[in-house]
Design a protein that fits this description.
Layout lengths: L2 E5 L9 E4 L10 H4 L3 E2 L7 H7 L6 H14 L5 H9 L2 E5 L8 H11 L4
Parallel strand pairs: 1-4, 2-3, 2-4
Helix pairs in contact: 2-3, 3-5
Length: 117
């Protein structure tokens, strides 16, 4: 199956298993409006890495490398999402404004191509 990325603030008609992949609950969104199936805090970047990156596009390459290392050093936390992806479409929800430089992109890439089979 496929993995889709979506800002939690945007409406979508996509159906699938909806997972928030942010550590902090997004401002202005009620739990009812989010229509989540899960909140996977365990797959977010460490607070130190997140604060260092601070959504700076110039740091994205280094952030991406460091975050991948974090994810792959403990791929146990990815197993649930990897299994869900095999059964149905997975929708990774995030709050970041920048659609080209965020951790959800990196997480999607790891789930699609870098996990041991």
């Amino acid at each position: 199956m496929s993995i889709k990325l979506q800002r939690i603030y945007e409406k979508s008609d996509e159906s699938g298993y909806r997972v928030l992949v942010d550590l902090v609950w997004p401002r202005g969104i009620s739990k009812k409006d989010a229509e989540l199936d899960d909140w996977a805090k365990e797959v977010t970047p460490t607070p130190e890495l997140r604060k260092w990156f601070n959504h700076d596009p110039e740091k994205f390459a280094d952030f991406k490398s460091a975050y991948k290392k974090e994810l792959l050093n403990d791929d146990e936390k990815l197993k649930k999402l990897a299994e869900l992806q095999k059964q149905q479409q997975l929708i990774l929800l995030y709050a970041a404004k920048d659609k080209e430089h965020n951790h959800a992109l990196v997480l999607k890439e790891v789930l699609e191509s870098e996990l041991p089979k």
